[in-house]
Structure formats: C-alpha cells, structure tokens
Design a protein that fits this description.
With 266 residues, this protein is an alpha+beta fold. It is 44% helix and 22% strand. It is built from 11 helices and 8 strands.
C-alpha cells in the first residue's frame, strides 16, 4: 500500500483539508477507519464498500464519503489506484442543504453531489507528480478555487465553531466538554446543537472518531497497546479495547497485525 496525503495550505483550506493518492495491491485487505472528514474519491476501477457484514454502496469509480461513524472494507476486482479530496467537517452542512440529503453515515455516487465539478478535479489530480511538493501545492490551490463556488451558501459557519473543531483535532479528541467551552465561548447545549447542525453528529461522537483515528496511526507504528491507551486518555487497556472494537469491529491487537490498512476514510 502506498499512501500520500498533502494538507491544503492557508488561505485555501476554508473548505478543503487535503488531497491524497494511494495504491492498493491487495484489495482483500483494504480496511478503512473514518477520520471525521467528508471526501470525494475517484478510482481507476469500480470500488464497493462493505461494513457490518453488508454492502454500503455498490461498485463505483466516483464516491462521496459523508460523515461516517463506522469502519469497513474497500472491495475491488483487482489492484486499484485512488485520488481524492478531503473536505473540512463543516462543509457537510452546506452540501446537505444544497442537495436536501442526509450525508451522515452515507457513501454515495460522487456525481450526485458535485455534478461536473468532479471532472475538473479529476483532471487536476491526474496531472500531479505526487513526489513533487510544488506540484501538490499548485494543485491544492487550483482545487481550492474550483470548490469556492460550490460552497457559497446562505449558511454561515461560526468562527468559534471552526476553532473548536481545530482544537479537538489538535488535542486528539481527549478533552472533556467543559474543556471545549473556553474555546467555544458559548454553552454546552449550544455547542451540541451546532455540532448537529454543521457536522451531523454530537461533539462526543466526533471526539471519539478523532481519538480512535489517532490510536490507529499509533498502533500501526508498532506502539504498545497499553501505552497507546494511556497516552490517549483511556482508563485502562480494557476500556480502550472495548471502544476500539465497538468502532472498528476488530480488537487493537487484531488491527495491529493486519496489513494493507487504510487508516483514514480514504
């Protein structure tokens, strides 16, 4: 598995988080864990997604991933390549309103969301030399401009909400609700309502996604499971294992042993 991800730089990151590329040589072991970002994924062959022992979406080359609260597998008839764009979490509110569709726990045909915009995006991604940072930088700026018009909306995302989401990510989802209030500067109830409005899930669910996403990265680097659990604020190994298995379907030990894992929503 080869994975390359490039963060969208300021000031082009109001709506976009990153662009990425990966190659999967063994489709039978393509496991994904959500990372809190909706995304547009374009593959060179049809890919289906399965989770919880059932199909989530039938084979398609262009997929839009909403705000997911489950993990699963990417399935294809052979090795494949993927390019994609990850969006900031709050763009889900704009897209949901524009298309009158629930995008939480949804993976759908990307053309339903972006019509012809994905064609231009695909052209830009296809021309990138992923070894060259300058090309990735120029591509990220171009894609940023492409999506500006798409995300113009009557919805105004609160600045303090954006800063709170950034704060959660920076601290790996380990803060309590009370810890978030100085950053948010409003009540816990308002914070919860705004998370449902802008991202479609509760603050606690979002924090869990961020924390378990971080744990998956640490585990794949070969870190001890108990140390990983304690470093990320879990009471003990049992607490961590229970939450990780509920979220991913496998234990941390099983996860660490698997190969060709995709540890984000890509």
């Amino acid at each position: 598995m080869k994975i390359k991800e490039f963060k969208i730089p300021y000031p082009y990151n109001d709506y976009l988080n990153s662009i990425y590329y990966f190659e999967c040589y063994d489709p039978e072991h393509s496991f994904f864990l959500p990372d809190g970002h909706p995304e547009l994924m374009v593959a060179n062959r049809p890919i289906s997604v399965s989770a919880r022992n059932k199909d989530v979406v039938s084979p398609n080359k262009i997929l839009f991933w909403g705000q997911l609260r489950f993990s699963g597998h990417l399935n294809a008839s052979g090795p494949y390549k993927v390019c994609g764009v990850k969006f900031q979490p709050w763009t889900l509110a704009i897209l949901s309103q524009n298309h009158a569709i629930n995008l939480v726990d949804s993976i759908i045909d990307g053309r339903i969301i972006f019509s012809d915009l994905f064609i231009e995006t695909t052209k830009v991604l296809a021309k990138i030399d992923w070894q060259c940072d300058q090309q990735k930088l120029m591509a990220s700026k171009t894609i940023g401009h492409l999506f500006l018009k798409e995300f113009r909306s009557n919805i105004v995302i609160k600045h303090n909400f954006i800063q709170t989401v950034i704060f959660i990510k920076k601290h790996n989802g380990m803060q309590s609700m009370a810890d978030l209030l100085p950053e948010y500067k409003q009540s816990i109830r308002t914070l919860g309502n705004d998370f449902m409005k802008y991202i479609g899930i509760s603050p606690k669910e979002y924090q869990t996604i961020i924390r378990l996403r971080k744990s998956s990265i640490i585990l794949k680097k070969g870190y001890n499971i108990l140390h990983t659990a304690l470093d990320l604020g879990y009471f003990d190994n049992a607490h961590f294992t229970k939450e990780f298995k509920r979220f991913s379907g496998v234990s941390p030990k099983e996860f660490s042993k698997q190969k060709n894992l995709v540890v984000a929503t890509v």
